[in-house]
Amino acid sequence: MNMFARRMRASAAAAAFCIATAIPGWAFADPMRVAFGDIATVESLHLLAALERAKEKGVDVQVTFLKSEDIAAQAVVSGQADIGVGGPYALLQKVKAPIRIFMQLSKLQFYPVVNSEAYKEWKDLDGQEIAVHSRGSGTEAIMKLMADKNGIAYSNISYVPGAEVRTGALLQGNVKATIVDSSGKRILEKEAPGKFIFLPLGEVSATDEALFANTDYLAKNQKDIEILVESIITTWREVAADPKAAIALREKYKLLPDATPEMIADIEPYFTEAVATLPLNGGGADAARDDFDFYTISGALEGKAEELKVEDFWDLTALNAVLAKTGTK
User: Fold this and answer.
1) What's the confidence (pLDDT) of residue 121?
2) DSSP letter string over 91-151?
3) Full-model pTM
4) Domains of the chain
């Protein structure tokens, strides 16, 4: 067994222990257990609303927020969670985990950024340290891809979960090169105009976050999965048609009760920008092929993109059933 596999299995065991002890009875209940490797923020507001809609339709959804996508993925692999949020391509290919992606939640929209006092352009990052969200994440894939395109090599990649955490680290001077989301970009431009430089990225089309589950769970709970998928697609289309809808959904379902006035004010601007990243048809086979192109170039997937098979990574059963009802916008 190689070192990567040993680490993954150890992580799975640790995740299983932590979740089972932290959430008494979780392993014995029958709800749809969703593991989210991040904290609840404005960025996840539409997903939280969609989960509430699934509850209204009879699905007992229970969400647990964990400290990283890695732990969330291992929770699904170990059977401590039914559904995970993230992009588990490396886990699927390298560990042969018995899971499948069943819908795309968002496409990548990130902004590589550096402190202008230290760096000016991509070549300045040769031999320097950068920070990304987590191992195997879209942020890591983007930064590795850009290193390859610009002929540079980083001295180290640090894993700092949460775009808002990386944004704060930039403002505090603890990080000098990282990658942030659109909210982080706006904060940096507002709080320290001219201090940070956003590096050119070019066109990138790939999954940022997706939903995935154990293959057994998908087979045995297709009706619940379809309700979840339809709830998400309905919500995505509503928010895409009018970003203000996210504000109404927060109020209706009493989401993010501890949100600050600044966070609330950021809801409409965030979703106005995020509309371009929302797949209104769940991604499907086209998204999978885009991912193969991107993640093989970035190194997260091995092999040739054209030789990878959608069915080895995705289960489109529920998504196709929902799209047959809702249409394929």
Assistant:
1) 97
2) HHHHS--SEEEEEEEEE---EEEEETTT-SSGGGGTT-EEEESSTT-HHHHHHHHHHHHTT
3) 0.77
4) 3-108+206-326 (3.40.190.10), 111-198 (3.40.190.10)
